[in-house]
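Batch 3, record 17
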Amino acid sequence: VTLAIFLQHFLNALQWGSFYALIALGYTMVYGVLLLINFAHGDIFMVGAYAGFFVATFLLGQSAFHLPFTVPSWAILVLTIMGSMALTAGLGVGIERVAYRPLRERGANRLYVVITALMVGILLEYLNLWQLGGAARGFPQLIHKQIYTVGGVSFTNVKIIVIGLAILVMIGLELIVRHTKVGLAMRAISYDKVAVPLMGVPMNRIIMATFALGSSLAALAGIMYGTAYEVIRFDMGILVGWKAFICAVVGGIGEIRGAMVGGFILAFIEIFVVAAGQIPGLEWLSSTYRDLVAFSILLVFLTFRPTGIFGVARRQKV
Amino acid sequence: MRRYSLPLIIIALFVLTIGASWLGILDSYIQLVLLYVGINIILTVSLNLVNGYMGEFSVGHAGFMAVGAYVSGILTVWLFAEDKVFGAPVLPIGWSFLLLPIILIIGSIAAALVGLLVAIPSFSTRGDYLAIITLAVNLIVKSAIENIEFIGGPRGFVGMKRVMNAMGDVLDAPWLLIWTFVGMIATLFIIRNFVSSTLGKGVVAIREDEIAAEIMGVNTRRTKVTVFMLSCGLAGLAGGLFAHWPGGYINPLMFTFLRSTEVMVMVYLGGMGSISGSIISAILFTLLLEVLRPLGVLKWVLIPLLLVVMMLRRPQGIMGSRELTDVFPRLRALLQPEKEVEGYAPASD
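Prediction for the assembled complex:
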């Protein structure tokens, strides 16, 4: 029985970690290229979920506009994911273009860009709250949920799809970053920000590609979140966003593999802190301790290894 | 006569605000806004020390504020109020006039000690490391308070109001406003003198070039830790004052990352490394929050929009790294007549 319970939590942690990892990837890629903590990224995740919600309800004929034909359900799923990723990528690139790039081109202190990012995040949250209201919305169920039980471990097909899709996407991203010209340019910029633009690498285009990739991954995470938990709210991105940022740091910020590993580590800590509360003798460890324990562990970890798991300390040259 | 002009201005301000509150010319709402202004000035100027003068990036000021608020709030209730958890008052209420500032200072020291705990690991590497640690600390402090049941957990902590009311019964005066004013002036005095001291010059040197500063004999690590502790301590002072506000309660939701964001906004709005800029922006931003209050949710759409636009038009904030005395030289002659107190050459952005 204990093994079954363990596996149950293990699956939950994998799913939860998929969200963190996908969001953390956006943080880490932007940081790698721009040295910018893009605090708006958690809210980009929220926007992605909402974009998915609107695309899906439109295709399902649940919104004000009706399509003259019905779309098959597999096509709705694919179109929702593609549409939401495209819309959110457009938003991410748009924010970069309107709010961050002018500051960068002026040569403003990069902390001002961080403040702008914070403001953009708050703006997105409250625009949503103002226009769509604070009530949680039910996310349309695009995948017919089925529950399987294997050896005392019960899981839904959604969980398997979420985990599988997340892993596939991460492999795809790794391939993009390792084997395409854009990926090469991204890695080069994160290695040296002075020399690489001089070598003819179009900085602005690479930065746009980074934002587009990061935002579409966040949108994917948003749709997965909506499908798995069935509700979305205007403030769903806040805490998840900060936690994903901490994941990116634990993995070694700027490192793509680090973001994935960091996401899963935080999810495992969180799920198993809650799970440990069910063990006799540890009842005091209620689920409200989850954040406290998780952050404290991460803080202690960072004290001993400030560069994160995969991060390499760079010597400062005089 | 001129050498007394600054004290005279301070006394005039004191009489104007406290006196008018005391006589009831200012109603309780305006007094509350004044209290917020004072607290926000303390918060902004103290964060400016780390983010502006030192060029580090601390994002969790509300966490240290929470430590100060809870420590001094608990002390006040334990010492002077009848409470379910802490029992009968330990001391008669008459003592509170004497002990309230000491309680505030103890709250500050507690916040500074938490700051030390954060500073020791944070400053071994440079970069955005401090941002991550302070973000985590902000979340940890909030989460920790939510999990401590005897101080109310997520419901919050009450009881400070009874003490403040009892103080008012003994001698009717706007006590909190008085102490906020004193705390604000003390903060400004400490920070102004600090940044023009030798240690303070080292702080600016660290911002401009850390390695060069180290070579020139600045103990960068110790300087950073000291400055960070000072900043956190002052945030604790602001928290302690805030704990005694007329609402009479504090809860963890008051010290979220959004509160930290507000303080950061005030720092960057005023200009990094400008005390007068911080004061101006703290006043303006507090008033803006109050003016836009009737708009409800729309307020938090307009304010970020305004700030994003402002960042695009004037990224260095209201004052940049200049002081009012740099902009108006005659003001300098009025305020600093006897000797030329040159801070540092304003860095061009």
